[in-house]
Amino acid sequence: MKKSTKEKIFDTALDLFSQKGYSAVSIREITRTIGIKESSLYNHYKNKEQILESILIHFRNDFSKTLPPIETLDQILANTTAETFLKAGHRNFKEYMENENGQKMWRILQVEQFREPLAREIILRDFFGTVIDFLEIVFTKLIKMNRIRSISPKLLAIEYQYPVFSMLTEYNILKFDGKDTAEVEQRLDQHIEFFLEIIKIN
Amino acid sequence: MKKSTKEKIFDTALDLFSQKGYSAVSIREITRTIGIKESSLYNHYKNKEQILESILIHFRNDFSKTLPPIETLDQILANTTAETFLKAGHRNFKEYMENENGQKMWRILQVEQFREPLAREIILRDFFGTVIDFLEIVFTKLIKMNRIRSISPKLLAIEYQYPVFSMLTEYNILKFDGKDTAEVEQRLDQHIEFFLEIIKIN
DNA sequence: GTCTATACAGTGATAGAC
DNA sequence: GTCTATCACTGTATAGAC
Questions:
Q1: Partner-chain residue, chosen from B114, B155, B159, that has the shortest CB–CB distance to A19
Q2: Helix (H, G, I), strand (E, B) or coil at B110
Q3: Could you tell me which of A56, A69, A65 has the C-alpha nearest to residue A117?
Q4: Among candidates A7, A15, A14, which has minimal Cα distance to A41?
Q5: CA of B127 vs chain A CAs: smallest distance (Å)
Q6: Which residue of A162, A190, A191 is the best one to mutate when testing the B interface, meaning the one whose CB has the most B CBs within 10 A?
Q7: Is A20 near strand C, with its CB below 7 A from some atom of it?
Q8: C-beta neighbour count of B14 within 10 angstroms
Q9: pLDDT tens digit string along A128-185?
Q10: Which regions of chain A are under pLDDT 70?
């Protein structure tokens, strides 16, 4: 349960960066929060930039774990309806949204995206790309199985996921101000219902 | 054609803030770029924060002009098909996307959203809210006129616009790195075609 | 409206004692 | 692995001459 100094630095930096942005947070502020001297920090991280880098890399690994492996897809899809599958993904996603560290990571990505090439890469590749590619495969399989209407799988992936990205943006801004998120959560539910209606075979 | 010092400060700050973020840009950097002394800047702006504020307020006014006034809606809709109307909006939006200052403003909003309450307000209210409300009115009218299928106007507004927000995010990251945006632009076209198909009365 | 001069707190980072 | 001490530099901002 005891956190190492390195972990304390990581967690504190994660928290402060996500609130003020990398540039507005000083080494002094991080170390003061933890209760160590500035010089001690350099025993754990080479410099300030490396703290951010370690946060971004950690997030990237973390995020890649949220989707089920492609190899297991056939088996999963054989045993569930399209509706159940998408709604399970939805629950998964909601859990991620409600996770405090997930929100912090998301904020850092948003805020550092034009200052930090790695942030852009994570947003484009891991966040947009990976999810869209995954969904395209899912919809391709479901169409072949004749379980949903035959519409371009890539288009379906976009129609399903892109609104979710926007809702996540909205959700996180509201959360940051401690405002009510019921409406945007309801929108997400409605979106999924609507999408299921579109792909349903009549 | 000659820019006043105040305009130079505004433009330079807009450019630098949009690349590095507010906190990472110093007064020194702004004044050095223009070729004046730091102290001279304070003749035009009270402090650094006020420069950002003036940028945000300028953007807000600018953005509110991109939608046609509600009063003119009935007349516009009487003379155009739903398809023509949405495609005109699409062109309008694309023009905005390709505008350099529009891209800079968007980047600033993204980057300052958790540090600057006004940025959050603009994103939520002016960017998300205004457009969704506008579209909801449009779709309500089109349904009453029996020109599109009868689906919840609010839901239609979301299904239409939210993917566009995400595509704008993607577009601007690609643009920032000078990468090819053909694919995301194609996605936007496909999305609109797909949406038109959904709302079409058979 | 721009300049010089100045203030002074905060910045990331290092050397070396313990 | 943490500390003290110190570094050179950069940060915003102001006073007052021209």
A1: B114
A2: helix
A3: A56
A4: A7
A5: 11
A6: A162
A7: no
A8: 22
A9: 999 999 999 999 999 999 999 999 999 999 999 999 999 999 999 999 999 999 999 9
A10: 1
